[in-house]
Amino acid sequence: MSKPWYPFYPTNVPYEIELSELSIYDLFERTAEERPTNKAIISGEEVLTYAQLKHQSDCLAAALYHRGFRKGDRIGVMLPNCKEYAIVTYAIHRLGGVLVQMNPMYQPNELAHIFDDSEASWLISHQEQQQKIQAIGIADRITMIATDRGDGQTANLYQWIAEERKQLPPLDIQLKEDIAVLQYTGGTTGRPKGAMLTHFNIVSNFFQNFISYAGVYERFSESVLGISPLFHGMGMMNLNTAIFTGSTYIVMDRFETTKVLELMRKHRPTVIAGSPTMYIALLRHPDLQPTDLRSLKICGCGSAPMPVEVITEIERKSGAVIIEGYGLTEATSAVSRNPMTGMRKIGSIGVPISSTDIKIVDLVSGTTEMAVGEPGELLVKGPQVMKGYWKNPEATQQILQNGWLYTGDIAKMDEDGFLYIVGRKKEMIIAGGYNIYPAEIEEVLYEHPAVSEAIVYGIPDAYRGETVKASIVLKPEMHATEAEIIEWCRERLAAYKSPRFIDIRTELPKTAVGKLLRRALVEEEKRKLSHS
């Protein structure tokens, strides 16, 4: 059946792709066999070829297997961007294990939920992160492996690799059934949920991504600057795309504009992908030189809309095309993007990628399709849509219905099939490329002994896109300052989630039945902005 967006696909991009019968490790192994001497990872002055990366991953997999790690076991990986992330990733997938993504910025109470929910009994991290596990009180049931110099009591990743064990079980992956990654994502209510991403989801989304680059992204030829966090869906896909195509992945442990420019000048990468905040920071850097960005061919952008003036400036200084797109954790990474060639529409999130169908439905019943130009909830269907939420059939049933993923995002489609995000059904905040869920922060606020009521919401921020603000009411006879409340949150939440502003009020807006009205505070902020 023809779709309105089909005419705008580049001629070498098919409507449907032939879905792969390969696992994540299969694709990695194929590249290592085809190009063993190609540079796989550049980390500082160290270079790992594909043969070296495979050898280290296989040795680690054998060491894990020797110590009892088996298919389906959950293993937390709590690392910044580093070469070890790649070694660990493909070792886990060799054994059919489940990689549980853990943000290194998470604090003990955030991690406690993920360990409890995922039932992960292994952890790979830097030594310093393991203090958080001690704080949770679960160290006695977790096998902890340090990637850096240990204390003599904790297992060391490189010591295990150096054992050079060979015994590995047969590769046994059921593509559509076996979970490769548990990617935790928040929601409007309750604790973060683990999106179950299968090997089929991840490999399919890789092919969808790669094909959408319409021949611009060439196998064995590109170098990817890893500016997106690997514990995030976009960063994970950047690494896999680099590795599966025999390209080079250049490690950046964290985004820092001066460091980005240094790496750009030294390695001349051809591909980057990040949030608008990252591009804005680059443009603002006082030492940005006319040739610094000229090596780039592809600049991916997601997580939030990119201001038109930023797109224009980046493209002028790089010669590359900014590719705006849309994705979400529950769809692995990518759902839509503007075409690499031909028509693209600035401000749009583009058209659905190959083998992806979408529809826009009314916000009440979720069943009636909206007319062209009319907003409604965006629904997605495709091989990249997750298997469901880990151990949460009720939430799975709400978001996956008749094969369709209900995204919670409000969108409209024009007559050409180009999509535009116009709002969020969920009250998610996007700050600096990170998804932040108010309910999680509100829960921490309510734990403060002086807080009676709390509403968390996003307010406009010229640099981060949005930033977090909380309006609270204190209990009678109780006292707390804004600074004290902010510090309370910082001790319990990753820094990017903690409110930057606290507004202490005598009352909060409510409905007639007493429900707190977040939207009223958002509108109040908009009015302030319009009058400033």
UniProtKB/TrEMBL annotation:
Residues 28-390 form the AMP-dependent synthetase/ligase domain. Residues 440-515 form the AMP-binding enzyme C-terminal domain. Coiled coil: none annotated. It holds the Pfam family AMP-binding_C. GO terms for molecular function: ligase activity. The keyword Protease does not apply. SUPFAM superfamilies: Acetyl-CoA synthetase-like (SSF56801). The keyword Flavoprotein does not apply. Keywords: Ligase. PANTHER family: LONG-CHAIN-FATTY-ACID--COA LIGASE (PTHR43767), NONRIBOSOMAL PEPTIDE SYNTHASE PES1 (EUROFUNG)-RELATED (PTHR43767:SF1). This is Long-chain fatty acid--CoA ligase. The lineage of its organism: Bacteria, Bacillati, Bacillota, Bacilli, Bacillales.
